[in-house]
Amino acid sequence: MSAARKVSSSINKVTKLDMLKDSKIWKLALFYFAGYTSIYGLSFWMPTIIKSLSENATTNLEIGWLAMIPSLVGIPAIMFVGWNSDRTNEHKSHLLVCPMIAVVGFIGCGFSNSVFMMVLMLTITSFGLYGFSGCFFAYMTFFFTESTVPVGIAIVNSFAALGGFVGPMIHGTVAFTQGMFILSGLLVMGVITLLSLKLTSASDENIVKEVEVNINEF
Fold first, then answer.
1. Which of 11, 126, 131, 169 could pair with 98 in a Cys bridge, judged by C-beta atoms 3.0 to 4.6 Å apart?
2. What's the gap between Cα 81 and its chain centre?
3. What are phi and psi of 55, to 5 degrees?
């Protein structure tokens, strides 16, 4: 662990004030805000979205069971993506793929005109959205030192928490189809932000990976 601390201190800001001035933390916050907004925009309105396409014979209980399917898929998604990203030490690539899977799902939701297709697309979307959650927190720690990590995580989480308001508001103010496209566009923006987020240099990234391998072997 001392090796990990040494590497982190050499490539990251070591004081809280310097960390706040670093664009990396705000890029992390923007990426997580995009994902957080999309998660809440989806989960808050999911039963209503399904109800809007269902026949009159579909009961509220049946809609509730259908709305559970995408959320249940999110459980193995979190576990698999978290496990595989640690196994391969490729956290960033997983964080890029998962939102793009969600983008495909959101676009599919926008064009769905039946309950079956909507639930299927919502399930794909949930896999991508929930999949990146655990992996993100592991990746985020690469950008902080031992002294700055509590403040850094708190800032990223606080900024992203605004998505709990923005996400439901999107579907509450525009049509569901338009809301799906807006959320997909927000995720694309998050992916672009993540692509611009790098450690100090390629050599530093290699050092971090080597430390991770040593820690895992230990």
1. 131
2. 11
3. -80, 165
Kindly give, in sequence order, each residue whose CB lies less than 8 Å from that of residue 64, ignoring residues fewer than 6 positions away: 47
Contact between residue 197 and residue 27 where contact means Cβ atoms under 8 Å apart = yes
Q: Under a CB-based contact definition with an 8 Å cutoff, are residues 78 and 134 in contact?
A: yes
How would you label 114-144 residue by residue, b for 16+ Cβ within 10 Å and e otherwise?
ebeebbbbbbbbbbbbbbbbbbbeebbbbbb
pTM of the complete model: 0.79
Residue type present at position 29: A
pLDDT at 13 over 60: no
Interval 49-104: pLDDT, tens: 888 877 665 677 888 888 889 989 989 999 999 899 988 888 889 999 999 999 99
Give the pLDDT band (50/70/90) at residue 183. very high
What is the percent of the chain where pLDDT is above 90? 32
Q: Are the beta carbons of 33 and 162 closer than 8 angstroms? A: yes
Whether residue 72 contacts residue 217, with contact meaning beta carbons closer than 8 Å, is answered with: no
